[in-house]
Write a structure and sequence with these properties.
Blueprint (H helix, E strand, L loop, with lengths): L1 H8 L1 E7 L10 E7 L2 H13 L5 E10 L4 E11 L8 H28 L1
Antiparallel strand pairs: 1-2, 1-3, 3-4
């Protein structure tokens, strides 16, 4: 019975860590709590796959009756999947450089053919 009671008191929390530039006051946010580890892991993977966060963590929390204390531990951390967005100005600059390079190449290729 004690094992079943401890099983019920386990909870899994999903936390996300925003880029501090976007959310400087408190970059950590809890996204959910569930008693099912598989549900928590699946939700964490979905959040990580969204590529909106620098980190996604699943934490396990339970009460240790023998020592009369609450244990809180990180089960899994997903990191390094932040979406890199190019701004419109960056795309425009790349386009202009490519256009200039293609015109320069065409000019030098046609100039060499007319000289021969």
């Amino acid at each position: 019975m004690a094992a079943a009671q401890q099983e019920q008191s386990i909870e899994y929390s999903i936390y996300v860590y925003y880029d501090p530039k976007k959310k400087p006051d408190n970059p950590w946010e809890m996204k959910g709590v569930t008693p099912d580890m598989n549900v928590a892991m699946k939700k964490a993977e979905e959040l990580n796959d969204s590529r909106e966060f620098k980190k996604v963590e699943v934490k396990k929390k339970f009460y240790d009756e023998k020592n009369a204390r609450t244990i809180d531990m990180t089960l899994k951390t997903f990191e390094g999947n932040v979406k890199k967005e190019m701004g419109a100005v960056t795309l425009l600059a790349i386009g202009l450089v490519l256009c200039a390079a293609s015109f320069a190449a065409a000019y030098f290729l046609l100039r060499n053919k007319t000289l021969n």
